[in-house]
Amino acid sequence: MRLTTPTAPTAATAAGPLRVLYVCAEVFPWLKTGGLADVSAALPPALSALGADVRLLMPAFSAIAAGVEPQGPIIHLPAGGTHGLPHGLGPQAHTASGTAPGLQAGRLKDTGQPVWLLHAPGLYQQGLNPYQDDHGHPWANSAERFGWLGWAAALLGSGLVPGAGWSADVVHGHDWHTGLAFGYLHALRHKGLSQATTVFTIHNLAYQGVFGAGVRAGLGLPDSLFHMQGLEYHGNVSFMKAGLVYADHITTVSPTYAHEITTPEQGFGLDGVLRQRRGRLHGILNGVDSSVWNPAADPLVQPGFDAEHLEGKALAKTALQDRMGLAPRPDALLCTVVSRLTGQKGLHLVAQVADELVARGGQLAVLGAGEPGIEQALRDAQHRHPGQVALHVGYDEPLAHTLVAGADVILVPSHFEPCGLTQLYGLRYGTLPLVRAVGGLADTVTDSSLENLDDGSASGFVFTSFDAKGLHTALRRAFALYRRPADWRTVQRHAMGLRFDWDRAAQAYLHVYRMAQTDRQHSGTPHA
Ligand code: ADP
Ligand code: GLC
What we know:
By secondary structure, this protein is α/β, with parallel strands linked by helices. It has helices at about 35-50, 60-65, 140-155, 180-190, 215-220, 240-245, 255-260, 270-275, 310-325, 345-360, 370-385, 395-405, 420-430, 440-445, 450-455, 470-480, 485-495, 500-525, and strands at about 10-15, 15, 20-25, 55-60, 70, 75, 100-110, 115-120, 170-175, 195-200, 210, 230-235, 235-240, 250, 280-285, 335-340, 365-370, 390-395, 410, 430-435, 460-465.
């Protein structure tokens, strides 16, 4: 066990290590649509390093199953009315396609991380994306896919899977895909069948998993959960709301976002619920997994570099320009974007300032995929400025490293941003983040204003107003600093020295687990 300070919390007690069931739908490098996968790869080992016994629970999507070394048989999951479970609670014994889901223990092949795989032939094998079909529409069986995940989490966490030989002290679910777990756990607890403490983490409140009330019967959701103070949302079933209402404590991925989501502007219709639960809502910043994102030891960036030896960064810039078909101009201010192309990310603003950026002598390299309108606007900019603006549409992990390492500035002009990871990767690689002051971006980047330059806290560029003018003003600041190489170096050195590590975040999560356990001991069994 590793402790960073003598007072750091530990996850081991006289009763043994704290058992944490970490429930999620994606994990890097096996299945990734966004930052949640990076978090799910890094937080469990950081918790284990503090003494916790952490098991992932994930649907056996083909990409996940390919990354897991199975370690036992598939254990059938009991349904409501069997094994002493209440009638009518939980999905029926079979999925709509007629198969009986089951759990199988295993380990992730790359790290040895213990995993429970949720097998349900017919439910998890379609396509590559866990949430959407090839046309970008949510899977027609989404409610069933993630309803079963919630049911499996509730049973396993409560020690109600005969033959599993494991139960959890803490069930920790991530995003709406796991929300129903907290509804089922609440119902089981009410029947005296579950002792597990529960924590729900919001990575993105914009995606809520809302389904027509007709899904209730198939998912075995008791009427006692379907009301305004429960998981009902305007007559529908909301998986997200189930997590928000029924988890003992809630976390999200930055302190600023934790506040923002309690306001009507950023609450996506759930700010009222979040205001009610404010006392149990915490903001814990994500970290950087330095086994994946470290400029000195990145196998995808050779030769590497660090804050004192930047020759490798100059070579990375040349490699980036070459790879993306940009003119080989070592002195151009090279800006990059690595992102999902969605409204959240504000990238239409980047398309709007592209002409000005090039007119000032800059270059732009974009890697992303998503909404056709944003893609087209960036493609138009590329056509207007061949050799100065380059777009690569798609998801490409090695190229993401090439861009983060070789650029001077990484643009993250988000409309909202729960945490954001690419600005953290930018800081680490001396690629100064230019961000909008929202969510985790506001918590992690300090503007290069005169006063911040003066006191040495500057680490990037920050703007407030969500329009092209706001972005443009911050860009001008970036160009101005770039013309002062000594000042640029100072900011770069400071940025590269900042550490957002997972050990700190894991300690904060442990603290929340402990608070939640203490609250439960004091409050006893709540009423359904
Ligand atoms: P979000 O989760 O909202 O998409 P984050 O900044 O938290 O935003 O995480 C995004 C993650 O996905 C980062 O690891 C980033 O490098 C990666 N990423 C985003 N788009 C791409 C892409 N087109 N190709 C490769 N990696 C990408
Ligand atoms: C979400 C958010 C992003 C965050 C990531 C990991 O996808 O959009 O801001 O960094 O989750 O927590």
